Automatic annotation (TrEMBL):
Pfam families: M20_dimer, Peptidase_M20. The lineage of its organism: Bacteria, Bacillati, Actinomycetota, Actinomycetes, Streptosporangiales. It comes from Nocardiopsis dassonvillei (strain ATCC 23218 / DSM 43111 / CIP 107115 / JCM 7437 / KCTC 9190 / NBRC 14626 / NCTC 10488 / NRRL B-5397 / IMRU 509) (Actinomadura dassonvillei). GO terms for molecular function: hydrolase activity; metal ion binding. This is Peptidase M20. Its cofactor is Zn(2+). The keyword Hydrolase applies.
Amino acid sequence: MSQTVTARLADAAERALPGMIDDLRALVELETPSGDRDLLSAGLDGIEGWLARRLGAPETRVRYDGGSFGDVLEVSYPGTGAGTVLFVSHYDTVWPAGTLAGWPVTVEGDRFSGPGCFDMKAGIVQSAWALRLLRELDLPRPAVRMLLTGDEEIGSPASRPHIERASEGVDLTLVLEPSREGMPKTRRKGMGIFDVDVRGVESHAGLDPAAGASAVHALAQVVPALTALSAPELGTTVNVGLVSGGTGYNVVAGHARCGVDVRVQDPAEMARVDAGLAALAAADPRVAVRVTGGWNRPPMNPNPPSEKAFGLLREVAGELGASLEEVSVGGASDANFVSALGRPVLDGLGAVGAGPHSRDEHVLVGGTPRQVALVAGLMERIAGR
C-alpha cells in the first residue's frame, strides 16, 4: 500500500471523527447489560439499524436466537478485491440497566466517557467506519462479515459456536476490543471458573462439637491447596474470589464453598490445574469436597497465520508513522477461541483509552482516527494481494 493511500485514509479518518463520536454516543446510549434479554434485543435492533444507515443494507443477514442470552447478528458486505475479513464484536456490557441515569455520556476535551464506551462499543463503531472509508475513497476492500454477539462479558456461552464457525476459511478475524495504549494484544490468558463445594457434618458448637465435621474449617485447609496451584513463572494464577459458609456462630458448619478464577498462558497448564483440583480433599474423612465449573476460554498465543497478519499490520502502522509492539494481557476475549483453532486473528485494535469495567471507563477521542485508519489500511492491503 502506497504512502499516498495511507495518508488518504488517515486524512479521511480525521475528517470523519465527528461522525464517529456521534455514532459512539448513539451506541452507548443503548443500554445492553449482559443479563437483560429485553435490553439486549432492543439494543441489537438499534445497532442493526445504525449499521444499515452507515453501510447500507447488507448482502446477507442472519440473526441467531441466543436463548436466555443475547442474540447473535451476522451480516456481510461484498468486496471489490481479494479476501474476506471477519469482525467479531460484542455489544453486551457489564453495566446494569439504569446506569446511564447516573452516568450519562459526557465528552470533555479529549475524553469520551460512558458505560461500555471503551469495552467495546467504540470497536463496533470503528469497524463500520473502516469499511465506510474504504468505500468513500474507492479503495480495494475485501468482503466483510460482521458478527455481533451479546454474551462475551459472561463467557460467550451462546455465541462461541457461531464465532468458531464464522472464523473458518476467512483470511483474517479482527476483534476490535480495546487496545493497550494503541497497541494490539497478541497474547491473552485462558481462563477457568470453578466452584469448590465442601460438605461437612453439622452439630452444636458448645454441647457436642466433636460430633460435627466443620466444612468451614475444611475449606480453610483447601484454600491454601488451591493457591499453591499458582505458577506465576509460567503465567498461571489462581484467585479465590468468593467464600461463604456456615449458618451460625454456634453451629459446626455443614456447608462451605468458594469461587475460584484460574488464568493460564501455557495450554499444558490446564491439565496440571485440572489434576490439582481433582486431588483436593479434606483431612477429616467425614467431609466431602466437590469441584464444578470448567475452562471458559483457552489461552491465546501467537500462531503462524496470526504472526503473518501482525507483520502486515506493523507495515501499515509504519506508513502511518507509528510503531507497534506486541502486548500480553491477563484478560480473555473471543479472539481466544479463534486463535486456539490455529486461525489468523488480531485482537485489541479498538479504542485508545482506559478504565474497562470501572467508572473511569473512557475513550480518548484523539486516538480514534489512527485506529480506524490502521484497520482500513490493513483491509486494503489484504484486498490488494
